[in-house]
Each structure stands twice: as C-alpha cells, then as structure tokens.
Amino acid sequence: MNSPRHLHIFKNAPWLFVPSFIFLSVFVLWPTLVVLVESIDQSSLTHVLSNSQLRQMLWFTTWQAFISTIATLAIGIPAALVLSRYSFRARQIIRALTFVPFVLPTVVVGIAFSSLSPASYQSGPTPLILAHIYLNIAVVVRVVGSRWEKLPTAFNDNAALLGATPFTNFRTITFPLLRSSIIGAGSIVFIFCFSTYGAARVLAGPRFPTIETEIYRYAFFLGNMPQASALVVWQLFVILLVLALTHRQKSISLAQRNLMPLSSERKTKRVYFSVAATLVAVGTLLPIAILFTDSLRSSQGFTFSYWATSDMWTSFLTSLGIALFAAMMALLFGTGSALAIAYSTRTRFHVFVQALTSLPIVISAVALGLGYLLAFRSDPVNWRGSLWLIAVAHCAVALPFVMRIITPAAREIQPELRENALLLGASPWEAWKSIDLRFLLRPLAIAASFAFTISLGEFGASSLLTRHGHETLAMRIGQLLSRPGEQLQKQAIASACLLAFSCIAIALIVEYAVQFNRKKRTQ
Amino acid sequence: MKKFIVSIICVAAVLSGCGGSNEPETKKLTLLAYDSFTPTEGIFDEFTQETGISIEVILGGDTGQLISKAILTSGNPEGDVLWGVDNTFLTRAVNGKVFSSYTSPQTKNMSDDVVALTQPEGVVTPVDTGDVCINYDKKWFAQRNIAPPQSLDDLALPLYKDLLVVQNPASSSPGLAFLLATISAYGENGWESYWKKLRANGVKVVDGWTEAYTIEFSGSSGKGARPLVVSYASSPPAEVVYSDPPVNEPPTAVIDTTCFHQVEFAGILRGSQNEKAAKLLIDYVADTTFQSDLPLTLFVNPVNKNVSLPEVFTSFAAQPEKPYTMDPAAIEKNRAEWVDTWSSIALR
Does the first or last residue of chain A, that is N or C, have fewer Cβ atoms within 10 Å of its Cβ? Predict the structure, then answer.
C-alpha cells in the first residue's frame, strides 16, 4: 500500500480548489447572477435579434474580433518564433516589452495611436483592429512562445537534413506540435477583442458600437437594465461557444527548453531575425515614446512638472498596494486550482474547474461592476466603497491567467522524479517541495508578474466601483482625461507613462530573476 | 511556503484595515458625487466645525453612472447626499425614487427659473448652472483669416466644412445637451433637416467629451485637426487656470449663441439614516461659502445670487444671454426617440 504513488501529498486533492471555489462563487458567480436575475426579461433577449441596429452591432463585434484574432496570430507567431527559439542579448528585454501594451489602459493606447497620425486619423474598424493587434501580441508571444521554446530542435534539423523546405518543416512538424497553443492563444485574443471597450470607444467611434460599449450605454446612459442584461447574456453565450469549440486537447508534454544562439544561424537568417526583433521592439515602444516626450513638453519647452505632482505618486502607491494584494490572492487561488487539476485524473473535475475559473474572462467587466454594486449593497455584506473590493475585482480578473500559466507547467512535472525522491527517503512534503515546487518557481514568478501588471492596468470593472478617495493610477488617468485644461491632460499622459514604465520594470525584473535562479541551479 | 502564506495574511489584514470603517460614534455624512467633483480641499471644515458632522466624499463615475447606480440602489443608497444630477437626468432619477424630498431655504437666493425646475415635487435643491456651447480654437481661425462662426446656422455653411466635432448624444452628456440645443432652436419639425445639413457639412461624431476635446479638437492640449468642438462655456477659463506656463488669454473661446443651459441639483438619498444632518449639508452647499468655491474648482456658475464671480471667470467664461433650455420632463419623455432619430441621420 505504501507505494510512492500514494505518497504524493496532493494526489487527487480537489480540496486545493476549495479556496478558489469559494472566492469565485462569492465574487464572480453570485454578483453576476444577481444582475441577471434582477433585471433580465425574455423580450429584451429576443429584442437583440429582432432589432436591426443591435443585430448589426453583434455582427460587427464578431467580425472585427475574428479579423483582429487572425491578424494578431499572423504577426504574433513570427514574433514568438524569434523571441522563443533563439537566444540573443536583447531577448529578455524585447519579450518583456511585448507585454506592456497588454496592460496599458486602452484610452491611453487610443491617444497614442491618434497622435501618431493626427491628420489622417479616422475612426473606424481599421484603427480598432490595429490597436487590437498591438494590445494582444503579448498573448500570442507568451502562450505560443512558451510552448515553442520547448520543442526539440532535433526534429526540424533532421527534417531539414532530409531535404524538407522550411515551409514543409513548419507545416508538418512545428505546426502540429504548436497547434493546441495557437488555438488557445487565438481563443483568448478573440474573447478580448469581442469584449473590447476602451479601444472601441476611442478608435472605432460611435458608428461602430461593440457589444461591451452597448452594455455600458444601455446600463448607464439609457438606464435600460433589462436590455443591458440581455446583452450580457448574449456575450456570455458567444464566449462560451468559442471556449467550447477551442477547448484544449491534451498535448504532448515537453519539459526541456531548447534555445539556439542566434549567432549559430546563417547570416541571411540572422539579419532577418534581428530586423524582426527590432521591429517588435520599436513597434511596441513607439507609442510609449511619443507619450513620454509629450509628457516632458509644455507649450514653452522642456518641463518635469507633470511628473512632480504628489497626487500621481500617491495613487501610484495605492496601485502598488492593491496590485500586491491582488497578485498574492490570485497566485494563491490560481495555483490551488491549477494544482487541483494537474494532480487529478478525473476529467469531469477538470471541466468543472476550468469552466469556473474561466468565468472572470467570460463575464464582461461592466457586468461584474454592476454585480458588485447590487450583490454587496446591504449588511452584513455591505462592502461597497471598500478599498479591498477593488483588489478583489483585480484578483478575479487575474486569476484565470495565473491558472493558465501554472497548469501546463504542473502537468509537465514528471512523477518519476518525485517518486525517486520518496524512494530515497524524503517525506511526502519534502519530496513535493524539492521537486514540484522547484519546477514551479519560474511559472509562479511569471504568473505573479502577470497578475501584478493586470491589476496595475485594470480599469473596466474597478472604474464602476464607488470609491473613497483612494484611486489607482489607471482610474486617475481616466478622471484627468475627462476634464479640460492642458495641465490635467499632460498629467494624465505622465501617469500613463509611469504605468507603462512600471510594467516594463516588473517584466524585466522577473525575466532576469528567473534567469539568475536557473543559472545558480545549473552551477 | 509557510512564510508566503503568513505574508499574504498580513497584507490582507493591513488592506482590510484601510477599507473598513469601524469609526466610533462621531457623526458622519457621506456625499456621493461624480468623478469631476473636485472642490478645494478642506471646504467642508467650516461645516464640521459648525455642526460636528464630518463629511466623506465618495466618487461614483460620470453623471450617467452615478444616476444609474443610484436608481439600482434606491432605498438602500451608497451615501446620504447626492451631488450632481442635472436637468437631463433629473426626471429619470425622480421616477427611480432616488430622492427623499427636500428643498433648501437657500433657494430664496436663487433665480426663479432655476428653482422652477425642481417643481412641482420640490425634491431637490439647485446647486450650480453651466452651459454647453461650441468652443473654437482662436489661433486656427486667426491664422487663416476666417471669422469664427456666429450661430448654429453658420455651422452648416460650406466655409466651415469638416471643422466641427460633436459627441454622440447616445452616450455623452454634453452631446445630448447640444442635440437638445438644436431641438430647442429649430423645433420639432426643423431639427432633423438641420442635422442633415450638418452631416453634409462633415460633422464628426465621437463617443465622449474626452475623445472630442482632447483628441479631435485642435485648441487644447491635443493635436487634433478640428477647430470647433462641443464643450462648456467655462472651458476657456479652465484652459487659463490649468495652463502651463501661465497665460493671460485662453487659446479657446465660446460661441455664445449655441449654448444649452444645464442646471445641477443636490438631493438627499432616500434611505439615508441621517436625513436631519443631510438637510444641513444641502443648506451648506447652497450657501455662499461653498458656492463661491465652485467657479474655479468645478468650473460651473454658482446659483446663489449673493456670490460674486472671480475675475478670470467673468472675463473668459461665456455668460450666454439666452441659452437654450428644456423642461426635464420633456427631455425624459422624448430622449430615446430623439436619440434614435438623430442616430439614423448623423451616423448611418
């Protein structure tokens, strides 16, 4: 009975999911149900299909999300190739940079984009799709890249020796191995583009409403809650459909990272890849650089004054505090859920956990904000206006990402290693700590930075929460931008730069910390 | 791992400490306001000294968000007093049973037409007024030797083709105000054809004030291409107060024949446990101390006639003689239909 397999302390341990289950039920499921139950009616649901304007809106939302997804994959996959297949000096920095747009407030991205080409700037589907590509490249680079860097190079080398062209090589070997991660990345990008809000308001303009901007408009400007809730239901339906269609199949697990030094490639390839990597870096940085120079310039010349407002630094500290709290909670709950799945053999349980942890992605930020207002309005749960509720909302948004980063890593840990440790006399806890936890350190660090930066940039749900003086940096940007006066506008831009720089800093720290840790281990 | 969990619990404890409000029995009132409610810090100190009641201000989004949230939580409000429902939202808020009726005795110092808006119920108290008007970029017109437009009619002239940016009245409060100005000006039968002309003349529609004023408009911090924008009569003094370096003249000005008059109100939220104290607060915000703070912090006109306006405000904020205006009940009744009709003319 005492075979090592049974000594795995977390083997089939659904209780690991209990904390997340409670958290998600209270802070995601319950508020959403309250919104839907309080205001939904059948005629509003069917009205979406019978009203030609709403039908058009639904169609536009769908096709722009589809095209955005294809375009993001088309640009993101080559970027992932360069950044996850080869090692070169600036790799970490560039990889970290691709992550920044993902967390920038979309209003800021809109301003940066429109200041790129003020004269020719026209709102409509094209700038929206371009912004979606810019915002979501990070998803493809992360999701596809983390898979790609583990593919053994030997397969491709052998095929090349046997005369396969690079294209055949990609089509017959690389692509099948990457397929599940490409589909996974694509489905996330699609969901983001489908529920786009800030970018759509600034860049697509009023002629092209999307489902999320319409939910907001019906709920807050027209005060028509039943119609807003009906749209929430439609959005849920489409996103669940996408998730069901792209549900990840099990993929072959690959543990080793295989980076090739870029210098080992032929010269033409080297030049091509260097150019590509530079383009990714420049493309990411250009809008931020424009914003930064803008924040240092007043009509009389160079100035630091927009960076010297105490309000900005106060809300920055608030943001850091909330992000720290949110990231730790998200790490705790996300890791619990991830391990519960990874160490379990029951598929039904997998589906259950995955469905529940997908909820925060599936439910629109506007709906979540409304839900908090309604669900937590009376004692003993009258939590409206609490600072920690903002952190909770951020945690809910970050949790699915943490889980999606940890799960594949935990699955790839080879049980034999743990079993050997047990055979060698380690206690179950020691075995878990010295094997599993060690392999999980890197994904844990990445997940933590992901959650932290998501919290820094989160605007949708938390901007709907009423607040007692404490403002996050992202909220402050939105507030400054809504008032006239050059100083206020410039302060908003400076705050946006601060946000972008913090994201870059965090991504860099994690990249280097992880690398340093690995070097230390291999010594 | 243990350390990790302990540190999480510590941070949780610290953060929940910040959020909780288990203060002992000092009397406290909560004032709920829109995001751009930014009076001078310490403006409520005098009130606290006089009454022993401290004020906490909480912000709840823009006016639309504020009112929708107040309706959803009607009877179980997020605060005691609400600042900032305007005449375009008043009827909806009243129908949503948001307020517990109270009109301050301070209304004796206000003009009759403003006070009349709170009738017949007398549910709220007027606190400030403002005007939504076309603003223009002075430099743009000066450099080209073109006279800025003088009226709503002028905006449809070929001379001003492709120069105007407005907000979508389906999602923006100044956008709705401008649509209402045109409906007041041209009447039920004329406004549709006016908007057809504006569209033919290249009017650009964006979703909100921020997009219009900071991105599309050429006159403020933005680098937009359009020198005409729907904004507020008080935007020019705001440009002076928040300019850097200091300037004596705003870069923008107002066309005061294009304005729609907005009145904002404060009311006691139904369900408040402190109605008596809330009445004192309403009286305070309608009285001179608070009212004189309004022009240069919120950039709105005080309603209390005993308050004199600061110089930067009198010199640069337009005080339109005959702004357009409309009965709140008429706005609520027709809004959805007007906005739908407008969308089919201006957008599709």
Answer: N
